Amino acid sequence: MHENDELIVTIEKFSNLGTGIAKVDGQVVFVENACPKDEVKIKITKVNKNYATAKVTEVITPSQYRTEPFCPMQKVCGACQMQFIDYDYQLKLKKQIVEDAMKTIGHIDTSVNDPIASPQIKNYRHKIQYPVSQKKEGRIVAGYFKPQSHEIVNIKYCPIQPEICDDIIEFIRENAPKFEITGFYEKKHTGDLRHIVIRSSADNGKCLVTLVVNATKTFERLNNFAKAIFENFEKVTGVCINFNSKKTNVILGSKTECICGQNFVEEKILDKTFKIGADTFFQVNPKSAENIFRYVKDEISKLDSPTVLDAYAGIATIGIVVSDVCEKVVSVEENKASIEKAKEVLLENGINNVELYAQDTTKYLKSIKRKFDITILDPPRKGCTTEALDETLSHTKQKIIYVSCNPATLARDLKYLVEKGCTVESIQPFDMFCHTYHIENVAIISF
Fold this sequence. Notes:
Blueprint: E1 6-10, E2 13-14, E3 20-24, E4 27-32, E5 39-47, E6 51-61, H1 74-77, H2 87-106, E7 127-134, E8 140-145, E9 152-154, H3 163-175, E10 193-200, E11 207-213, H4 220-232, E12 236-243, E13 255-261, E14 265-269, E15 272-276, H5 286-300, E16 307-311, H6 317-322, E17 328-332, H7 336-349, E18 354-357, H8 361-366, E19 372-377, H9 386-394, E20 396-404, H10 407-419, E21 423-430, E22 440-446
Parallel strand pairs: 4-6, 11-12, 16-17, 16-19, 17-18, 19-20
Antiparallel strand pairs: 1-5, 2-3, 3-4, 5-6, 7-8, 7-10, 8-9, 10-11, 12-13, 14-15, 20-22, 21-22
């Protein structure tokens, strides 16, 4: 098998990165935009020692699960890898991804529950981050990067986000030149506008717009442009400027200035109100997140007024949502800005049984002697360190509830906990990112 070879294959499985898997002479081939049981003609794009990659050039016999994508940009955009697959079957494939991780990485026998579907499979994405670039002819483009590239696909309609976001971005594209605002030249690191970030509320439909600019301070034409955006859209609560002049792939810089309106939108999760700012971490799919938080709350409510540690808390969303079935919640988050946001939320909702600590989770646990009935772990994609897991075990009386966005690191951490004598009671997947290979999980661990 060589690069540019054309072959006919049948797709056998689905990989954990959203590609189909075929075998040619015993060698694994990862095939983009391929569904299990497809018979396809492929072109080999790369050959490595242990595997090859390929693209579909023709679907000869489509799988019974293959469907027409509802977005015309699905193939070129790359953001919705699974949109050409029937949604119910997507959920089965995601369950398989979790099961494979538990088997091959975790060596765990616990069965995986069927995933809980997202309440919305269109218009569900309530945080939009579009890179922006300047074309030589003076045109500004904004959208997503093509897979494995830095070429922006100019997205004018995206059915997985609220329609108003398309309208705002189109207004920015069309009107930025009138205010002499240029798009970003990545190679030369010149130009004004690097990213457009929109946070929309699933509760009230309002939007916060943030313009990420290649500058260290604002300027008159930029302020005037921000005001034009604010005045043109009734549902825009505010327009902010974020300053990021560094040569980095990180989207937001450390400084944000609100030019007009409010610097937040309000979101509701299980009757709790949250204020979401430009740089606030908050769930992209609030309705699916609500399912997760309800599930966690139901698990906690099985105990009578427990004490709960909410670790890697962010703005303490989970801790705040479950607080009314707890005697005490201690939320720990090393990002000080997130803790300040959490303080505002507690005040707004009249909650007085949540303690907040701006500290690394492991360091906090090492500094205390108290034990909690339940610990909630909600770490970033890299999961927990063994040190953090050891400290969690020594400070938890009954259960750990592990909320994870990465099946691989969850499986690794569960393996460690099982080796320490824990029992994995259940693993419940939740579909937060429809039409992608990503899947959230909540594991209940007892000891």
